[in-house]
Specification:
The complex is a heterodimer of chains A (about 525) and B (about 110). Chain A is mainly α and about 525 residues long. Chain A contains 21 helices and 7 strands. Chain B contains 5 helices and 2 strands. The longest helix of chain B is centred in the middle third of the chain and has 17 residues. The chains are: A mainly alpha (about 525), B mainly alpha (about 110).
Chain lengths: ~525, ~110
């Protein structure tokens, strides 16, 4: 194969972004922005030339940048210190999958950095010579296109010798765009729903109850056991918060069945809340302020119900928000107690400030203490690999607990190649609110490196199930793997656990939670 | 914002032709939306759409496919309560096509 090493004819600043269908999500709707009092709520369309911006849009952006340069030292630092070494470039799954130079993290950041230089540095007065450029409408549209092509997975930041966190640059970029109402509906819709109804999908309390009842019937069908969880119950010891996708979308519903089976078997004094029926926080894909507003609800509800601590389900970015931002958003949550497992007595010191424990951590502790009766043979029809969800892996540093659980409940576990797992995990391609159907070509490309690693273990070991601990993964990986690999399922780790969990008084299991015959 | 022209009137739809205001919906319009999807509405098609509409009225969201399947089986028997049957009626998928014809909005989030 011959490689063309010639430089492109035009510099990147001279190549305006071309908004390609299949590579962007539809624009935020008026009613979604209005629901949270966001500016410039209006009817607009990405494909039309006129984005209906306020006349002084440029000033709004520049003022917004000035404000954020003051508020976030990280922002100024990340703008100043990049030496453009390019170590990040081929680490980004979006760049690997799309081949679009402006998706190299270094260049994506440069889209913003060039404007920073022009307006906020002395050298920027030299213009192009100093890598600076004017903020024009073309530049703004380019920002929108590429900042909503970054899944904020943070793989690049792992390899940056300066520790520049490009996701933080995307976050700021999106914040600035939101000052002009330039969000995407796949994010703005869930944010509005979550703010008004408590979850991204907009499920009403009775809808949640109906859906959970449906899952309880399924559990009874498989195990013969009747479970009755509680909702909004004051005085419960624990508030249990899960992503709403697990209540209402396959294959997350099997994970939800798993949660309820485990907690029932333990006899845990817990409650669901129909008001805090969402662990995820699409506000985080909008602005820090919006993330804070949505995060606050979890703690307000914990206070209202008078619980001691919070247990959190298998959600991705919820955990990044909880472990990296919650404390400065709304913390410390001193009205709660340091979480202690009532079953094992283990105190979760790491959750001392946020008072919220990850279900995988909680479960791994149960297994380690010998509190669960498990029959891994019930998962023998599965050959399992584990996809580290970016936010839990790089945003929280949790790698071993889910593996510890899988190894205890499955006899066939195979790791994907070393440079595609744990802190080096590859994105599902749809993170940070990009899993809209109109964005499919982008998603298939951005997820290609991950799918390729799954294909490898599929061919080498016959892997037929990918475990994960994130609801976006559970929504995004099935179409991705259907497209690139074929015949591989996706499940939550708690689903695997529940398959293997021997429950008191259960009937003989003939199928797994999905109704598949056991081997 | 894109529009759907019907009966001399113009209705708000999203980029993929989903009605924006469920109250705009009526039977004749549904037949017309079905045509744009290449679906000829028969009694069997209406069974699905009517269930979706009833479910939406009560729960403010389109049902999960497995709820649709289970309820169809309860109401019309197992030969109608399965994925294959629903895909025969709505080749692009009951979630996408039948919901669009029933005038339900598309769900968003981790789905």
């Amino acid at each position: 194969m011959e490689i063309d090493y010639k430089l492109p004819k035009k510099g990147w600043m001279d190549v305006p972004a071309e908004l390609k269908k299949g590579f962007f999500c539809y624009g935020a709707k008026e009613k979604s922005l209005m629901a949270v009092d966001f500016p410039n709520a209006r009817q607009w369309s990405v494909i039309e030339k006129d984005w209906k911006l306020p006349e002084n849009w440029k000033q709004i952006i520049l003022d917004g940048m000035a404000d954020r340069l003051k508020r976030y030292r990280s922002f100024r630092l990340f703008m100043d210190i990049c030496v453009r070494c390019g170590a990040c470039a081929d680490k980004c799954p979006v760049y690997l999958g799309t081949g679009d130079a402006k998706n190299m993290p270094v260049l994506r950041a440069e889209l913003l950095r060039s404007v920073y230089r022009r307006y906020f540095t002395k050298a920027g007065k030299l213009g192009r010579l100093a890598g600076a450029r004017e903020l024009t409408l073309e530049v703004l549209k380019e920002w929108w296109y590429y900042f909503y092509q970054c899944s904020e997975c943070r793989r690049c930041s792992l390899f940056c010798p300066y520790g520049i966190d490009t996701a933080e640059i995307t976050i700021i970029g999106r914040e600035l765009l939101n000052l002009l109402g330039l969000n995407i509906e796949w994010i703005a819709g869930p944010v509005a729903n979550c703010y008004r109804k408590g979850n991204h999908l907009g499920l009403e309390p009775h809808t949640i109850k109906n859906s959970i009842n449906f899952l309880l019937d399924e559990i009874e069908g498989v195990t013969g056991i009747k479970i009755e969880p509680s909702f909004n119950r004051k005085g419960s010891e624990i508030l249990f918060v899960i992503p709403s996708g697990d209540m209402f979308a396959d294959p997350g519903t099997y994970t939800c069945m798993g949660y309820m089976m485990l907690l029932h078997e333990l006899g845990l004094d817990y409650t669901f809340s129909t008001y805090v029926s969402e662990g995820g926080n699409f506000g985080f894909f909008t602005s820090q302020e919006m993330a804070k507003r949505l995060n606050y609800k979890i703690y307000a509800e914990a206070k209202r119900l008078g619980v001691k601590w919070i247990l959190g389900g298998e959600c991705g970015h919820m955990w990044r928000v909880i472990s990296q931002y919650m404390d400065t958003y709304n913390g410390p949550a001193d009205f709660l107690e340091t979480p202690r497992s009532p079953i094992t007595g283990t105190e979760f010191q790491n959750a001392k400030s946020g008072k919220m424990v990850h279900i995988s951590e909680f479960t791994a502790d149960l297994i380690k203490s010998g509190m669960l009766n498990l029959d891994p043979k019930r998962n023998d029809h599965l050959k399992v690999t584990f996809h580290d969800s970016c936010n839990v892996a790089r945003g929280m540093g949790m790698f071993e607990e889910p593996r510890y659980i899988i190894k205890a409940v499955c006899n066939n576990f195979y790791e994907m190649p070393e440079n595609t797992i744990k802190e080096k995990t590859l994105c599902c391609g749809s993170g940070a609110g990009l899993n809209a159907s109109e964005n499919t070509e982008f998603r298939m490309r951005a997820g290609f490196p991950r799918a390729n690693a799954v294909k490898y273990v599929r061919e080498k070991h016959g892997v037929n199930m990918v475990g994960c601990i994130c609801a976006i993964d559970r929504a995004a990986l099935p179409p991705l793997l259907d497209h690139w690999v074929g015949d591989v399922g996706v499940c939550g780790v708690t689903e695997l656990l529940a398959n293997a969990l021997i429950m008191k008084g259960e009937k003989e299991r003939t199928t797994d939670l999905r109704g598949q015959e056991l081997k | 914002m894109p529009n759907f022209e019907f009966g001399g009137k113009s209705y708000d739809v999203d980029e993929e032709g989903y009605l924006q205001n469920p109250e705009d919906w009526n039977k004749e319009m549904a037949e017309e939306i079905a045509k744009t999807e290449g679906v000829e509405m028969t009694e069997k098609h209406w069974e699905v759409v009517n269930f979706l509409k009833d479910y939406y009225k009560e729960y403010q969201i389109a049902p999960m496919i497995k709820i649709l399947i289970k309820e169809m089986a309860k109401m019309f028997g197992p030969e109608k309560g399965n994925n294959k049957y629903l895909y025969e009626l709505y080749p692009s998928g009951p979630a996408k096509q039948a919901c669009k014809i029933a005038g339900l909005p598309k769900p968003t989030g981790c789905v």
